[in-house]
Design a protein that fits this description.
Helices cover 42% and strands 17% of the residues. The chain is an alpha/beta fold. The chain folds into two domains: 112 residues, Threonyl-tRNA Synthetase, Chain A, domain 2, CATH 3.30.980.40; 277 residues, Rossmann fold (3-Layer(aba) Sandwich), CATH 3.40.50. The protein is elongated. Bound molecules: adenosine-5'-triphosphate. Adenosine-5'-triphosphate binds next to helix 8 and strand 17.
């Protein structure tokens, strides 16, 4: 039998019932607690409103019309989903498949193990006797990765998460976890009538939020498969040349405008695929004459000769013509410098003033391995000039090398953009990508030498400090031949104005004198004079 007797019988104890206590203390206290729980619940409900709406809708249907209707609605929904997938797969993936996957991964992996994993990875903070765990805000999925957004407790910075990355990966059953402190996406372009309003909303949505950190867990490695060559754009977008696929399956696009590019990688790492992907992305401009490609193949023509027709100038045999070619390019740059001085500050490529891209395969062969000291010095001086002044003048250098050793390292800092393919030693990573790059996740020395991983490397993206792992598209020999015949460079006589003269046997070589000035700072003049001497 049910016992309805009160816990404390005030009447029997002859104690007056303390109604005032219930009215003014217990009830307000309970109300206060309920209000706090509701306030805490609101953001969770807000984040999960879709799931909530679905559950409430399904419960209402069952209650009102019975389970038969519920099953029928589910079957019709599945059929419509299948049709959507069949006809408009991309949008179906974007709006149905990936959000469902993200919901499931959040429930089954991250929410379940979050507190435990954060605590054992030493990312929880204790303050005033209370444990504060990083807050799990959002889970987003691609077909290869889980992207988890968290808010750091006060007193932490993203460096802590970089250090804990390996532990985090294994805690959530993955082998790799990358940590990104910046935003994962940029505000979309907003054309049209509502643009000002939408841009104002975007300014709030995409505001800088330093305490947010993204953890990107690899579920499978999407870079295991060879990436086929990208289609050739009719007009190259020099601010976004498609070269590679990133781990999140996005396309890595290189901003080539006003920068020089250095590609470093051990032998057979796949540096050729970076060069050819870049040339392919520029091919439309080569045919129209907007871009002029010059090539120096320090490997005796093994790498670049196959696409000879794409190059306006090309040298691959002797060192002397290679160095003369560098001098000629410096001459072109100087002439352009004179034309631009006082008129414009950054060059924009046109058919009359095209963009010059010098591709040097194996930089070491030019700056370190030449036996002729005079030629070697001339090459280094010309390269230093091109690298320090060419970017803004539309004369760019794309060089590759196997070894970032001393001679290359001297020039290395003049390359604003660098790519690290498979490297032999851990300390080379920071040499190539900059201090701390390896700690921030660029483990280029751990890329396997296995042929299935050729063309994989690390790049630094414009919008975040953490390097990204990418796989460059592989342009086959047949594709290069086809490209060379379709996009062959038009024959254009180059306006040549060498700045130094090649040494002749009976005449001592003439020394180039470098004038200081606004475009040639004193420190550089000293360096170049020292090199020339
Ligand atoms: N992106 C890629 N995807 C798949 N395979 C690739 C890729 N890049 C290169 N390879 C394969 O790797 C081999 C070596 O590539 P590549 O010649 O470009 O290397 P490298 O770094 O230039 O080597 P080296 O410095 O010795 O010339 C190629 O023959 C090709 O089969």
């Amino acid at each position: 039998m049910k016992n309805n007797a009160p816990l404390v019988n005030f009447r029997r104890l002859s104690i007056p019932t303390p109604w005032w206590l219930v009215m003014w203390v217990v009830i307000p206290y309970l109300l206060w607690k309920a209000l706090r729980a509701l306030v805490k619940l609101l953001p969770i409900l807000g984040r999960n409103w879709r799931s909530l709406a679905l559950v409430i809708g399904a419960a209402w249907l069952w209650h009102r019309h019975g389970w038969i209707w519920l099953v029928m609605v589910l079957v019709v929904a599945a059929g419509l989903g299948g049709l959507w997938w069949w006809r408009w797969r991309r949008s179906c993936e974007q709006f149905i498949v990936l959000p469902l996957l993200a919901w499931w991964r959040r429930l089954s992996v991250y929410a379940v193990h979050w507190r435990e994993a954060m605590t054992v990875c030493r990312l929880a903070e204790r303050f005033d006797g209370k444990l504060t765990v990083p807050r799990l805000l959002r889970v987003r999925c691609t077909f290869a990765t889980d992207e988890v957004l968290l808010r750091m407790p006060r007193g932490q910075n993203p460096e802590l998460y970089h250090k804990a990355a390996a532990n985090l990966a294994y805690s959530f059953d993955s082998r790799v976890c990358r940590v990104y402190s910046g935003r994962r996406t940029n505000p979309p372009a907003r054309p049209g009538r509502w643009a000002p309003l939408l841009r104002a909303v975007d300014r709030v949505r995409f505001r800088d939020r330093p305490r947010l950190v993204w953890l990107v867990f690899l579920r499978r490695d999407p870079l295991r498969r060879t990436v086929p060559a990208f289609p050739v754009p009719d007009e190259p977008d020099l601010t976004a040349l498609p070269l590679a696929v990133r781990e999140d399956l996005e396309t890595f696009r290189l901003r080539l405008l006003a920068t020089h590019l250095l590609i470093v990688g051990a032998t057979r790492a796949g540096k050729g695929s970076v060069q050819w992907s870049l040339i392919r992305a520029l091919a439309g401009g080569l045919r129209s004459g907007l871009v002029r490609l010059w090539g120096i193949d320090g490997k005796g023509g093994v790498e670049l000769s196959i696409g000879r027709e794409l190059f306006s100038r090309y040298e691959y045999t002797d060192a002397a013509p290679m160095v003369t070619m560098l001098d000629e390019l410096v001459g072109i740059m100087r002439a352009r410098q004179d034309r631009m001085q006082g008129n414009i500050r950054v060059h924009t490529p046109t058919l009359d003033e095209p963009l010059y891209v010098l591709v040097v395969d194996e930089l070491l062969a030019l700056v370190a391995l030449l036996l002729d000291v005079e030629l070697r010095n001339r090459a280094r001086v010309a390269l230093a000039l091109l690298l320090t002044q060419g970017a803004g003048l539309g004369v760019l250098v794309v060089a590759s090398t196997q070894d970032p050793r001393k001679e290359v390292v001297e020039l290395r800092d003049f390359f604003p953009t660098r790519i690290a393919m498979r490297l032999n030693e851990p300390n080379q990573v920071d040499l190539v990508l900059g201090d701390g790059a390896r700690n921030r996740g660029a483990i280029a020395d751990q890329i396997p030498a296995d042929p299935s991983m050729r063309g994989v490397g690390y790049v630094v993206l414009d919008d975040r400090p953490e390097p990204a792992r990418v796989r460059f598209a592989y342009v086959t020999d047949d594709e290069i031949r086809a490209m060379a015949s379709t996009y062959a460079a038009p024959p254009v006589p180059e306006p040549v104005r060498p700045v130094s003269v090649a040494p002749t046997p009976d005449k001592p070589p003439k020394r180039t004198v470098y004038r200081p000035g606004p475009l040639l700072p004193d420190s550089l003049t000293d360096f170049l004079d020292g090199e020339a001497a």
